[in-house]
Design a protein that fits this description.
Chain lengths: 246, 444
Amino acid sequence: MADVDAPPLLEARALVRRYRRFTALDGVDLRLLPGEAVALLGPNGAGKTTLLELLAGVARPTEGTVTWGGGDAAVRVGWVPQRPAVYLRLSVRENLRLFAALEGADDPSAEAERLIGRADLETVASRPAGQLSTGTLQRLNLAVALAGHPAALLLDEPSATLSPDQRLRLWEWLGELRAQDGLALVFSTQSVQEAARHGDRMVVIARGRSAFAGGMDDLLARWGSPDDGVDADERAFLRLVEGTPA
Amino acid sequence: MRGALLLFRKDLRLLRRAPLLLAVLVGYPLLVALLVAAALQGEQRRPTVALVSLDAPGRTVQVGDRRLSVDDYVERLQEEVDVERLEPARAREELDAGRVAAILTIPEGFIADLQSGVRQPTLELVTSRRSPIEGEAIQRRLESAVYRFNQGLAQGYVRQVLQLVDFIVNGGSIAVLGRQGDVIGLVRGRELIVDAQAELRRDGNTALALRLAPLISFIDETQNNLDLARPAATAISSPIQLSIREGARGREPLSAFGMAGALLVSLALAGVLLAAAGLSSEREENTLVRLRRGLVPLPLLIVEKVLFSALACLVVGMVLLAAVAGLTDLAVGRWAVWPGVLLLAGAAFGAFGALVGAAARETRTALLAALMLALPLVFVGLIPGDRTGVVADVVPFGPAFDVFRTLLADPTLGSIGGSLALLGGLTAVLTGLAALVLHRRAAT
């Protein structure tokens, strides 16, 4: 679904983020094409969230640059933090109306109704966000990120707290968004299977650095072993992040 | 700016939607305010004052037609406070132990100085540092007693002066060094001169009669001036006469001091807690990560919370004042000034709360920290007197209390400007600090 001939939607170069003496991210590059889905794969504390926060504009890089749409300010990016970022005492509809208004929608009420429809939230639209199930709350979290008509969504471990059926529905919906709106995705995950299944390509982040970029076949070819059996992808990934030479 | 307005409306909606929170927000400060008001009513109780008289007993002073002694002064004092006569050392012990609220010392030579009419005798009042509020109340009571005693003395002195004026004008008998004599007075003196002048004219000595004319004019002028001195002296002895009558027994009186304290406690708690909770909940609900992506800049977010607190303080404050005006004997007045003052004080309290809210990671921590920090500082602000210390200048509670007291009690608003300027400055500084802390917190 990625438009390989189009100019990149995102160009991030030599990103460094330091917190006092700790370097969370150390010289990471990332390109994203329109409609492309990139999976950021890495263990806990690897720097995935930091990278996404820099791309989302939540934090500023210590060094390096992030450029969306070649510098076009009109390009919007939706941010889906791992922990839902909504007002728990406002209803689903009020949350969507508020964030649509904050994003500058001409008619926030109409935009909220559109998002309620897209996220399949009609039955809970009047319910306070704090009373929603985890899966529904994550759908609201994602719907809020769509309020500004973004060209790309940045998702921080979107399925980490979901049950298998909720996870399935989430990825089906994200697939629909990609197909219908040509939405590009950058999502982080700790699951090799999820990265391989839903990403057009993977970027493995380990100890703040980009350790690998490519597809699953490439990963298996370089770090896999004929004796790995059914866990071949997991074992190849572990060898990669542990620093085993390819 | 539009983003901040949208969040303001959101906060208002959330507040309306939480009736329990709203009740606590208004009810708790009101409860605390009532307790503070009740505690500060202490100035209406009769305190005990130790009286140390160093003057020789039995000495009296003649003022007008009355002879006064120290006992007369003590009698006047007892209209205001309970007096306990003590030796100097014992009085100090009682004050240190808190059994008396103050020591009033009548110095040696008090009556002699009074008698001299030249030296002004001075009373010394030592109040307890343990209870500055009660100390100030005693000071006011004794000032009132001294004022009334002074007024009595002045009337006596004026009577003396008027007798003397009368003596000069009309003449009479006078006893000097045991010998009795007559003074003719201006009226009789004029009559004698006019008679002499007439006799001289009859004798044809017109030139000499004419030479007496200036003397008659001088007597007339002097007499006229002395006539004017009579009402002037009376006016000086009692510049304003106050007619006091006891009204019907109404509701409980509430002192302006107590009301200002109650207003400070209720508004400070409401403003500080609202801003602290409002800001920290943005972080706790994780919405801060969305807002700071350019939807609402962090400084504007702080300003929104500060303005929200200011508005809440305006509403709570006006409700309190209206309740006081309607249910107590305290005259509130100055209704046109109050909204602006309440908004400014509320903004200052909100900025203080926002600083706490910016530093705390979760709402409960923010509320607890705000309460623990604000409560003692609010009570520091309630201490009357010269509060030039660092603590009083870096938190908004002291200046706010000064403004409330001035509006409720002072006949002029002369001293309000400095406190209002300090409140405004503190609001700006605390808001800036809150934005800085939030920015640093958000970056880690």
